[in-house]
What does this fold into?
Amino acid sequence: MAEATLSIGEVADRAGISVSAIRFYERRGLLPEPERAGGQRRYTDAAVQRLGVIGAAKHAGFSLDEIGVLLSSTDAGAPAHEQLRALASRKLPEVDALIERAQAMRNWLFVASECGCETLDACALLRPS
Amino acid sequence: MAEATLSIGEVADRAGISVSAIRFYERRGLLPEPERAGGQRRYTDAAVQRLGVIGAAKHAGFSLDEIGVLLSSTDAGAPAHEQLRALASRKLPEVDALIERAQAMRNWLFVASECGCETLDACALLRPS
DNA sequence: GTTGGCCCTGAACCCGGGTTTAGGTCAAGG
DNA sequence: CCTTGACCTAAACCCGGGTTCAGGGCCAAC
It folds into this structure.
């Protein structure tokens, strides 16, 4: 892989993220401290790559702390899938609950549009189920 | 309806919410200011009722501000369903997107448990899609 | 008559996930 | 030479949704 040395701004552009977020992730330990040239951070493509991984994991609903755990085990050379499986089994019920609630809400929004109730307090739809 | 006058603590217990949250909702305008007896808030069952409504709406994914809009239109005697429909059509796409991402994540979590990859960075599952 | 329990207030604090700001360094270009 | 733009740092700030704290009141029971 090319040793392309990118500035933080270039990395930000490629990863579609803000410069401040990159520095923030670095402080959080999600991103290894890069080399510096004259005080300025110099990245390789691996950093862009990892930002993609972080983005995907975030998108998948992991918190930054959880992502940190995963990545640090990766960095330590530990097999990722062990951590991943542990995290997955912890997260699955949460996600299921989230989906259930979201779908309930979706239904509710549909029905609600049809509900001719005059006041919310009187609306049967909002009765605490 | 019974004029049961409840203390804030009793309301909190019945609504399954904390006392501080009730005062917080009141400051936010979600809960009308109740009468007072010797400086202390006195509620009727309607307050418990409304806290249930708020809880349901929160549960359904509305922010406190959105709930405030709905309730204030209710309080103003305006028909609730107009506001509701407007809010619903604004929220529906959001909810759909949420569900879609959540389901993607759910799949991902399943597959991830099976993925034998050694490092996260190398895990094909985490390639930014 | 003081102890205990619940209530009151405003203000400060917490978390997550960043962004913004103030003040400083450096290289390139007109 | 001096301005412009990208970078650096630490620290402050933002939002949402509350919780906690400090300091005080009021009433009933012992």
